[in-house]
UniProtKB/TrEMBL annotation:
This is Response regulator transcription factor. Pfam families: GerE (PF00196), Response_reg (PF00072). One of its GO terms (biological process) is regulation of DNA-templated transcription. The modification 4-aspartylphosphate is found at D54. InterPro entries: CheY-like_superfamily, Sig_transdc_resp-reg_receiver, Tscrpt_reg_LuxR_C, WalR-like. Keywords: DNA-binding, Phosphoprotein. PROSITE patterns: HTH_LUXR_2, RESPONSE_REGULATORY. Residues 134-199 form the HTH luxR-type domain. SUPFAM superfamilies: CheY-like. Residues 3-119 form the Response regulatory domain.
């Protein structure tokens, strides 16, 4: 049996995925969670073969989860299942050791086949994403710039961001200014939208 953990913050989608994969004779859904932090904890506890995760989730994104699992050298293979066909996401996913990247509108049999392929040591990338990843621009942001820009996009002030990331307010403003400059944006909100649309957040 291939043991699968599903991380998805939309309850309806989570339930549907678990039910669909449960119909496969060789797949066993060993856990379902609604955020990346809980997924990381369950991965340490259950050691699933495959972690099927969305990108955008509360507390920890699917890409951050993949990076943490890679750093922790846990044996589970990560697959992204998302609505976001963004080349920046795919590039970051590959850098974090992700083995599969599929879109949510893929047929159920495609997902099951992809899980088997990844479990067997292969990769499974949606063809349309693979093509787009070669045509998209490179991510110019540093990890710190990405982090403060994401918080700014959530409506936090520089002072609030500074408290959360344990930096001075001036340093936060410098990171935001650098991100705005790199993206050619006129302000932090425009920079956030540009980076988000490109899949860099």
């Amino acid at each position: 049996m291939i043991r699968v953990l599903i991380a998805e913050d939309q309850a309806l989608v989570l339930g549907a995925l678990a039910a669909l994969l449960g119909l496969e004779d060789d797949l066993e859904v060993v856990g379902t969670v609604g955020n990346g932090k809980d997924a990381l904890a369950l991965c340490r506890e259950l050691r699933p073969d495959i972690v099927l995760t969305d990108v955008e989730m509360p507390q920890m994104t699917g890409l951050e989860l993949a990076a943490q699992l890679l750093d922790a050298r846990l044996p589970c293979k990560v697959m992204i299942l998302t609505t976001f066909a963004r080349s920046g996401y795919l590039r970051r996913a590959m850098a974090a050791g992700v083995r599969g990247y599929l879109l949510k509108d893929a047929p159920a049999e495609t997902l099951a086949a992809a899980i088997r392929q990844v479990h067997g040591g292969g990769r499974a990338i949606a063809p349309e994403l693979a093509v787009e990843s070669w045509s998209g621009g490179m991510d110019p942001l540093s990890e710190r710039e990405r982090h403060v820009l994401r918080l700014a996009g959530e409506g936090r002030t520089s002072a609030e961001i500074a408290r959360q990331v344990h930096l001075s307010e001036g340093t936060v403003r410098n990171y935001l200014s650098e991100a705005i400059s790199k993206l050619g944006a006129s302000n932090r909100i425009e920079a956030y939208r540009m980076a988000r649309d490109a899949g860099w957040l």
